[in-house]
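Hey team,

Sharing the (African queen) hypothetical protein run so nobody has to redo it. Sequence (412 residues) first:
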Amino acid sequence: MRSKTFASIHLNEKKFCVISFRRNVSIPRSVKKLPLKSVESLFPRFVEPVPNVTVTVGRDALLACVVEDLRGYKVAWVRVDTQTILSIHHNIITQNPRISLSYNDHRSWYLHIKNVQEVDRGWYMCQVNTDPMRSRKGYLQVVVSPMIIDNMTSTDMVVREGTNVTMVCRASGYPEPYVMWRREDGQEFICNGELVNVVDGENLTISKVSRLHMGAYLCIASNGVPPSISKRVVLMVQFPPMLSIPNQLEAAYVGQDVTLECHTEAYPSSINYWTTDRGDMIISGNKYITALNDDGYSRKMKLTIRKVSSRDFSSYRCVAKNSLGETDGLIRLDEIPAPSTISTTVNYVPTFPQRKKGKHKNRWRDSSAENRVIGDYEVEEWKDVDYESTQSSSSSSVRGFGFSVIVVLFLS
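Structure output:
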Protein backbone atom coordinates (compact mmCIF):
# COMPACT_ATOMS: atom_id res chain seq x y z
CA MET A 1 0.00 0.00 0.00
CA ARG A 2 1.08 3.56 -0.75
CA SER A 3 0.08 6.66 1.14
CA LYS A 4 -2.16 9.22 -0.59
CA THR A 5 -0.79 12.73 -1.10
CA PHE A 6 -2.63 15.74 0.37
CA ALA A 7 -1.69 19.35 -0.25
CA SER A 8 -2.11 22.45 1.84
CA ILE A 9 -1.72 26.07 0.81
CA HIS A 10 -0.28 28.74 3.09
CA LEU A 11 1.70 31.97 3.04
CA ASN A 12 5.39 32.03 3.80
CA GLU A 13 7.21 34.88 5.56
CA LYS A 14 7.30 36.93 2.35
CA LYS A 15 3.59 36.33 1.78
CA PHE A 16 4.18 34.11 -1.23
CA CYS A 17 1.84 31.28 -2.00
CA VAL A 18 3.35 27.94 -0.83
CA ILE A 19 1.76 24.58 -1.49
CA SER A 20 3.03 21.75 0.72
CA PHE A 21 2.23 18.06 0.49
CA ARG A 22 1.96 15.32 3.08
CA ARG A 23 1.35 11.59 2.90
CA ASN A 24 -0.91 10.10 5.51
CA VAL A 25 -3.27 7.88 3.64
CA SER A 26 -2.30 4.57 2.09
CA ILE A 27 -3.45 3.62 -1.39
CA PRO A 28 -3.19 0.22 -3.02
CA ARG A 29 0.02 -0.63 -4.89
CA SER A 30 -2.12 -1.67 -7.78
CA VAL A 31 -2.52 2.04 -8.58
CA LYS A 32 1.05 1.97 -9.91
CA LYS A 33 -0.08 -0.37 -12.60
CA LEU A 34 -3.02 1.78 -13.77
CA PRO A 35 -2.79 3.31 -17.27
CA LEU A 36 -2.05 7.06 -17.40
CA LYS A 37 -5.61 7.92 -18.43
CA SER A 38 -6.95 5.96 -15.50
CA VAL A 39 -4.62 7.80 -13.15
CA GLU A 40 -5.76 11.14 -14.59
CA SER A 41 -9.34 10.21 -13.88
CA LEU A 42 -8.51 10.06 -10.19
CA PHE A 43 -7.69 13.81 -10.19
CA PRO A 44 -9.96 16.83 -10.59
CA ARG A 45 -10.11 18.43 -14.02
CA PHE A 46 -11.02 21.88 -15.27
CA VAL A 47 -14.09 21.88 -17.47
CA GLU A 48 -13.19 25.18 -19.16
CA PRO A 49 -10.60 27.93 -18.94
CA VAL A 50 -11.10 30.80 -16.57
CA PRO A 51 -12.54 33.40 -18.96
CA ASN A 52 -10.95 36.81 -19.36
CA VAL A 53 -13.21 39.56 -18.05
CA THR A 54 -13.37 43.24 -19.00
CA VAL A 55 -15.05 45.57 -16.53
CA THR A 56 -15.44 49.34 -16.36
CA VAL A 57 -13.97 50.86 -13.24
CA GLY A 58 -16.56 51.15 -10.49
CA ARG A 59 -18.57 48.13 -11.59
CA ASP A 60 -18.50 44.57 -10.22
CA ALA A 61 -16.44 41.71 -11.67
CA LEU A 62 -17.06 37.97 -11.58
CA LEU A 63 -14.37 35.34 -12.27
CA ALA A 64 -15.55 31.74 -12.70
CA CYS A 65 -13.67 28.46 -12.24
CA VAL A 66 -15.43 25.16 -13.02
CA VAL A 67 -13.84 21.95 -11.68
CA GLU A 68 -15.19 18.41 -11.97
CA ASP A 69 -14.40 15.45 -9.71
CA LEU A 70 -12.94 17.67 -7.03
CA ARG A 71 -13.35 14.93 -4.41
CA GLY A 72 -11.35 15.84 -1.33
CA TYR A 73 -9.14 18.42 -3.04
CA LYS A 74 -9.46 22.13 -2.41
CA VAL A 75 -9.77 25.14 -4.74
CA ALA A 76 -7.90 28.37 -4.15
CA TRP A 77 -7.96 31.79 -5.84
CA VAL A 78 -4.61 33.55 -6.14
CA ARG A 79 -3.65 37.00 -7.46
CA VAL A 80 -0.76 36.08 -9.78
CA ASP A 81 1.21 39.32 -10.04
CA THR A 82 1.36 39.80 -6.27
CA GLN A 83 1.20 36.09 -5.35
CA THR A 84 -1.59 36.97 -2.95
CA ILE A 85 -3.92 34.18 -1.78
CA LEU A 86 -7.48 35.46 -1.97
CA SER A 87 -9.42 32.37 -0.91
CA ILE A 88 -8.96 28.69 -0.02
CA HIS A 89 -11.95 26.43 -0.46
CA HIS A 90 -14.82 28.11 1.45
CA ASN A 91 -12.69 30.67 3.24
CA ILE A 92 -11.71 34.23 2.27
CA ILE A 93 -8.06 34.84 3.09
CA THR A 94 -7.54 38.38 1.79
CA GLN A 95 -8.36 41.40 3.92
CA ASN A 96 -9.82 43.22 0.94
CA PRO A 97 -13.50 43.83 1.83
CA ARG A 98 -14.45 44.13 -1.84
CA ILE A 99 -13.63 40.46 -2.51
CA SER A 100 -16.06 37.63 -1.79
CA LEU A 101 -16.53 33.99 -2.79
CA SER A 102 -19.44 31.84 -3.90
CA TYR A 103 -19.67 28.25 -5.14
CA ASN A 104 -22.14 25.74 -6.51
CA ASP A 105 -22.12 22.02 -5.61
CA HIS A 106 -18.34 22.06 -5.20
CA ARG A 107 -18.11 22.37 -8.95
CA SER A 108 -18.30 26.07 -9.83
CA TRP A 109 -16.22 28.54 -7.84
CA TYR A 110 -16.81 32.26 -8.28
CA LEU A 111 -14.57 35.10 -7.21
CA HIS A 112 -16.51 38.37 -6.78
CA ILE A 113 -14.82 41.77 -6.83
CA LYS A 114 -17.05 44.73 -6.03
CA ASN A 115 -16.45 48.30 -7.14
CA VAL A 116 -13.51 47.31 -9.34
CA GLN A 117 -10.55 49.69 -9.30
CA GLU A 118 -7.59 50.01 -11.64
CA VAL A 119 -5.37 48.26 -9.07
CA ASP A 120 -7.46 45.12 -9.60
CA ARG A 121 -6.29 44.81 -13.21
CA GLY A 122 -4.21 41.65 -13.80
CA TRP A 123 -4.08 37.83 -13.84
CA TYR A 124 -6.07 35.68 -11.42
CA MET A 125 -5.40 31.96 -10.90
CA CYS A 126 -7.77 29.22 -9.91
CA GLN A 127 -5.68 26.31 -8.57
CA VAL A 128 -6.35 22.85 -7.14
CA ASN A 129 -3.97 21.34 -4.56
CA THR A 130 -3.09 18.23 -6.54
CA ASP A 131 0.47 16.95 -6.94
CA PRO A 132 1.59 18.54 -9.14
CA MET A 133 -0.67 21.55 -8.70
CA ARG A 134 -3.25 22.15 -11.42
CA SER A 135 -4.43 25.65 -12.32
CA ARG A 136 -6.11 27.92 -14.82
CA LYS A 137 -5.64 31.66 -15.24
CA GLY A 138 -7.94 34.47 -16.36
CA TYR A 139 -7.21 38.14 -16.94
CA LEU A 140 -9.25 40.91 -15.39
CA GLN A 141 -9.15 43.96 -17.64
CA VAL A 142 -10.28 47.17 -15.98
CA VAL A 143 -11.17 49.93 -18.43
CA VAL A 144 -11.69 53.57 -17.57
CA SER A 145 -13.78 56.02 -19.57
CA PRO A 146 -11.90 59.18 -20.58
CA MET A 147 -11.65 62.20 -18.33
CA ILE A 148 -10.32 65.69 -19.05
CA ILE A 149 -7.46 66.72 -16.78
CA ASP A 150 -8.63 70.26 -16.05
CA ASN A 151 -5.44 71.60 -14.50
CA MET A 152 -3.51 70.57 -17.63
CA THR A 153 -6.10 71.78 -20.17
CA SER A 154 -6.54 75.26 -21.63
CA THR A 155 -9.32 77.53 -20.45
CA ASP A 156 -10.99 80.38 -22.36
CA MET A 157 -8.39 82.51 -24.12
CA VAL A 158 -8.14 86.13 -25.31
CA VAL A 159 -5.34 86.88 -27.81
CA ARG A 160 -4.40 89.69 -30.20
CA GLU A 161 -5.03 89.25 -33.90
CA GLY A 162 -1.91 88.16 -35.79
CA THR A 163 -0.30 86.26 -32.91
CA ASN A 164 0.17 82.49 -32.60
CA VAL A 165 -2.01 80.52 -30.21
CA THR A 166 -1.89 76.95 -28.86
CA MET A 167 -4.79 75.28 -27.07
CA VAL A 168 -3.93 72.19 -25.01
CA CYS A 169 -6.16 69.32 -23.91
CA ARG A 170 -4.98 66.52 -21.62
CA ALA A 171 -7.08 63.43 -20.95
CA SER A 172 -6.76 60.27 -18.89
CA GLY A 173 -8.40 56.87 -19.22
CA TYR A 174 -7.69 53.25 -20.08
CA PRO A 175 -7.03 52.48 -22.86
CA GLU A 176 -5.28 55.77 -23.54
CA PRO A 177 -7.84 58.18 -25.02
CA TYR A 178 -7.78 59.57 -28.53
CA VAL A 179 -8.04 63.38 -28.46
CA MET A 180 -9.27 65.69 -31.24
CA TRP A 181 -10.26 69.33 -31.67
CA ARG A 182 -13.09 70.87 -33.71
CA ARG A 183 -15.20 74.01 -33.76
CA GLU A 184 -18.39 73.84 -31.73
CA ASP A 185 -20.44 75.16 -34.67
CA GLY A 186 -18.98 72.49 -36.98
CA GLN A 187 -17.52 75.07 -39.37
CA GLU A 188 -14.17 74.54 -41.07
CA PHE A 189 -11.26 76.75 -40.06
CA ILE A 190 -7.74 77.50 -41.27
CA CYS A 191 -4.98 75.70 -39.37
CA ASN A 192 -1.37 75.87 -40.58
CA GLY A 193 -2.49 77.12 -43.98
CA GLU A 194 -5.06 74.37 -44.53
CA LEU A 195 -8.83 74.43 -44.30
CA VAL A 196 -9.73 71.70 -41.81
CA ASN A 197 -12.73 70.45 -39.88
CA VAL A 198 -10.91 68.35 -37.26
CA VAL A 199 -7.40 68.46 -35.78
CA ASP A 200 -6.07 65.26 -34.19
CA GLY A 201 -3.97 65.37 -31.05
CA GLU A 202 -3.87 67.10 -27.70
CA ASN A 203 -2.52 70.40 -29.07
CA LEU A 204 -4.32 72.78 -31.43
CA THR A 205 -1.88 75.39 -32.77
CA ILE A 206 -3.06 78.27 -34.97
CA SER A 207 -0.50 80.56 -36.56
CA LYS A 208 -1.35 84.24 -37.12
CA VAL A 209 -4.78 83.95 -35.60
CA SER A 210 -7.48 86.15 -37.13
CA ARG A 211 -10.96 87.26 -36.16
CA LEU A 212 -12.30 84.42 -38.32
CA HIS A 213 -10.86 81.97 -35.76
CA MET A 214 -12.93 83.53 -33.00
CA GLY A 215 -15.44 81.15 -31.42
CA ALA A 216 -15.85 78.08 -29.24
CA TYR A 217 -13.73 74.96 -29.77
CA LEU A 218 -14.36 71.47 -28.41
CA CYS A 219 -11.66 69.13 -27.14
CA ILE A 220 -13.13 65.61 -27.42
CA ALA A 221 -11.56 62.54 -25.78
CA SER A 222 -12.69 58.97 -26.50
CA ASN A 223 -11.27 55.48 -26.01
CA GLY A 224 -14.13 53.15 -26.83
CA VAL A 225 -15.36 53.14 -23.24
CA PRO A 226 -18.52 55.22 -23.02
CA PRO A 227 -19.13 57.98 -22.52
CA SER A 228 -16.79 60.19 -24.53
CA ILE A 229 -16.08 63.52 -22.90
CA SER A 230 -15.46 67.02 -24.18
CA LYS A 231 -14.38 70.41 -22.92
CA ARG A 232 -15.36 73.76 -24.41
CA VAL A 233 -12.67 76.39 -24.88
CA VAL A 234 -13.66 79.84 -26.16
CA LEU A 235 -11.10 81.72 -28.24
CA MET A 236 -11.56 85.49 -28.42
CA VAL A 237 -9.42 87.55 -30.81
CA GLN A 238 -8.86 91.24 -30.10
CA PHE A 239 -8.62 93.79 -32.91
CA PRO A 240 -9.36 97.51 -33.39
CA PRO A 241 -12.60 98.61 -35.08
CA MET A 242 -13.03 98.32 -38.84
CA LEU A 243 -15.84 99.96 -40.77
CA SER A 244 -17.50 99.58 -44.16
CA ILE A 245 -20.30 101.62 -45.75
CA PRO A 246 -22.66 99.99 -48.27
CA ASN A 247 -23.66 103.37 -49.79
CA GLN A 248 -21.59 106.48 -49.20
CA LEU A 249 -24.04 108.63 -51.14
CA GLU A 250 -27.75 108.57 -50.34
CA ALA A 251 -30.53 110.68 -51.84
CA ALA A 252 -34.00 111.67 -50.69
CA TYR A 253 -36.64 114.29 -51.34
CA VAL A 254 -38.20 116.66 -48.86
CA GLY A 255 -40.73 114.92 -46.64
CA GLN A 256 -39.34 111.43 -47.21
CA ASP A 257 -37.93 109.08 -44.53
CA VAL A 258 -34.38 107.89 -45.31
CA THR A 259 -32.07 105.33 -43.60
CA LEU A 260 -28.27 105.48 -43.56
CA GLU A 261 -26.24 102.34 -42.75
CA CYS A 262 -22.70 101.46 -41.59
CA HIS A 263 -21.15 98.04 -40.85
CA THR A 264 -18.47 97.68 -38.15
CA GLU A 265 -16.28 94.90 -36.73
CA ALA A 266 -14.42 95.10 -33.42
CA TYR A 267 -13.40 93.17 -30.32
CA PRO A 268 -13.70 94.13 -27.54
CA SER A 269 -17.13 95.37 -28.54
CA SER A 270 -17.06 98.93 -29.79
CA ILE A 271 -18.99 102.02 -28.80
CA ASN A 272 -21.00 103.08 -31.86
CA TYR A 273 -22.71 106.41 -32.53
CA TRP A 274 -23.65 108.93 -35.26
CA THR A 275 -22.67 112.59 -35.60
CA THR A 276 -23.63 115.46 -37.89
CA ASP A 277 -21.10 117.12 -40.16
CA ARG A 278 -20.53 119.63 -37.36
CA GLY A 279 -19.56 116.83 -34.96
CA ASP A 280 -22.74 116.94 -32.86
CA MET A 281 -23.75 113.51 -31.56
CA ILE A 282 -27.15 112.40 -32.83
CA ILE A 283 -29.55 111.21 -30.14
CA SER A 284 -32.41 108.89 -31.00
CA GLY A 285 -35.79 110.62 -30.77
CA ASN A 286 -38.70 111.79 -32.89
CA LYS A 287 -36.54 113.18 -35.67
CA TYR A 288 -33.74 110.61 -35.64
CA ILE A 289 -34.01 106.88 -34.94
CA THR A 290 -30.77 104.95 -34.32
CA ALA A 291 -30.57 101.14 -34.34
CA LEU A 292 -27.74 98.70 -33.66
CA ASN A 293 -27.82 95.01 -34.62
CA ASP A 294 -25.17 92.70 -33.09
CA ASP A 295 -23.84 89.53 -34.74
CA GLY A 296 -20.81 88.40 -32.77
CA TYR A 297 -18.02 90.86 -33.36
CA SER A 298 -19.98 92.44 -36.27
CA ARG A 299 -22.49 95.26 -35.93
CA LYS A 300 -24.88 97.07 -38.26
CA MET A 301 -25.48 100.74 -37.46
CA LYS A 302 -28.61 102.38 -38.87
CA LEU A 303 -29.73 106.01 -38.74
CA THR A 304 -33.24 106.85 -39.92
CA ILE A 305 -34.05 110.51 -40.60
CA ARG A 306 -37.79 111.11 -40.54
CA LYS A 307 -39.54 113.63 -42.79
CA VAL A 308 -36.40 114.99 -44.35
CA SER A 309 -36.26 118.79 -44.60
CA SER A 310 -33.99 120.96 -46.72
CA ARG A 311 -31.58 121.51 -43.84
CA ASP A 312 -31.11 117.73 -43.44
CA PHE A 313 -29.25 117.49 -46.73
CA SER A 314 -25.71 117.23 -45.38
CA SER A 315 -23.05 114.69 -44.35
CA TYR A 316 -23.39 112.21 -41.49
CA ARG A 317 -20.59 110.35 -39.74
CA CYS A 318 -20.74 106.86 -38.18
CA VAL A 319 -18.14 106.23 -35.45
CA ALA A 320 -16.85 103.03 -33.77
CA LYS A 321 -14.42 103.00 -30.80
CA ASN A 322 -12.89 100.37 -28.52
CA SER A 323 -9.83 100.12 -26.28
CA LEU A 324 -7.60 99.30 -29.27
CA GLY A 325 -8.58 102.12 -31.59
CA GLU A 326 -11.27 104.07 -33.40
CA THR A 327 -12.60 104.50 -36.93
CA ASP A 328 -15.34 106.44 -38.70
CA GLY A 329 -17.03 106.80 -42.06
CA LEU A 330 -18.90 109.56 -43.88
CA ILE A 331 -22.24 109.32 -45.70
CA ARG A 332 -23.59 112.23 -47.74
CA LEU A 333 -27.32 112.83 -48.11
CA ASP A 334 -28.34 114.74 -51.26
CA GLU A 335 -31.70 116.11 -52.38
CA ILE A 336 -33.66 114.83 -55.32
CA PRO A 337 -36.88 116.29 -56.77
CA ALA A 338 -40.04 115.01 -55.21
CA PRO A 339 -42.13 112.85 -57.51
CA SER A 340 -45.09 114.76 -59.04
CA THR A 341 -48.57 113.51 -59.94
CA ILE A 342 -48.66 112.90 -63.71
CA SER A 343 -51.75 114.26 -65.46
CA THR A 344 -52.44 113.90 -69.18
CA THR A 345 -54.97 115.91 -71.19
CA VAL A 346 -56.24 114.24 -74.29
CA ASN A 347 -57.30 116.64 -77.01
CA TYR A 348 -59.61 114.81 -79.28
CA VAL A 349 -60.60 115.96 -82.70
CA PRO A 350 -63.13 113.48 -83.95
CA THR A 351 -62.79 112.10 -87.39
CA PHE A 352 -65.16 109.77 -89.04
CA PRO A 353 -63.21 107.25 -91.07
CA GLN A 354 -65.75 104.51 -90.56
CA ARG A 355 -69.43 104.59 -90.65
CA LYS A 356 -71.62 102.10 -88.97
CA LYS A 357 -75.03 102.70 -90.29
CA GLY A 358 -78.19 101.27 -89.03
CA LYS A 359 -81.51 102.66 -89.99
CA HIS A 360 -84.12 102.16 -87.37
CA LYS A 361 -87.40 103.73 -88.00
CA ASN A 362 -88.87 104.70 -84.69
CA ARG A 363 -91.44 107.01 -83.46
CA TRP A 364 -90.21 110.07 -81.60
CA ARG A 365 -92.16 110.69 -78.50
CA ASP A 366 -92.16 113.82 -76.48
CA SER A 367 -91.99 112.88 -72.81
CA SER A 368 -93.30 116.21 -71.81
CA ALA A 369 -96.29 115.75 -74.05
CA GLU A 370 -97.47 112.50 -72.55
CA ASN A 371 -95.70 110.33 -75.07
CA ARG A 372 -97.18 112.18 -77.96
CA VAL A 373 -95.75 110.98 -81.27
CA ILE A 374 -93.88 113.75 -83.01
CA GLY A 375 -92.54 111.95 -86.08
CA ASP A 376 -90.38 109.18 -87.52
CA TYR A 377 -86.55 109.27 -87.36
CA GLU A 378 -83.41 107.30 -88.34
CA VAL A 379 -80.31 106.80 -86.16
CA GLU A 380 -76.83 106.76 -87.71
CA GLU A 381 -73.78 106.06 -85.49
CA TRP A 382 -70.23 107.30 -86.20
CA LYS A 383 -67.15 106.05 -84.29
CA ASP A 384 -63.46 106.96 -84.25
CA VAL A 385 -61.83 103.57 -84.94
CA ASP A 386 -58.26 104.97 -84.78
CA TYR A 387 -58.81 106.25 -81.29
CA GLU A 388 -60.21 102.94 -80.09
CA SER A 389 -57.23 100.97 -81.45
CA THR A 390 -54.82 103.44 -79.84
CA GLN A 391 -56.54 103.13 -76.48
CA SER A 392 -56.60 99.32 -76.54
CA SER A 393 -52.82 99.04 -77.17
CA SER A 394 -51.73 101.77 -74.75
CA SER A 395 -50.14 100.79 -71.42
CA SER A 396 -50.54 104.28 -69.97
CA SER A 397 -52.25 104.57 -66.64
CA VAL A 398 -54.04 107.70 -67.86
CA ARG A 399 -57.35 106.87 -69.42
CA GLY A 400 -58.97 108.92 -72.20
CA PHE A 401 -62.54 109.04 -73.21
CA GLY A 402 -63.90 107.46 -76.39
CA PHE A 403 -66.41 109.35 -78.49
CA SER A 404 -69.32 108.27 -80.58
CA VAL A 405 -71.37 110.66 -82.67
CA ILE A 406 -74.99 109.84 -82.94
CA VAL A 407 -76.93 111.66 -85.64
CA VAL A 408 -80.63 111.72 -85.45
CA LEU A 409 -82.31 112.37 -88.77
CA PHE A 410 -85.90 113.25 -88.71
CA LEU A 411 -87.85 111.89 -91.59
CA SER A 412 -90.38 114.01 -93.24
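Helices lie at 36-41, 385-393.

Ping me if you want the raw files.
A.
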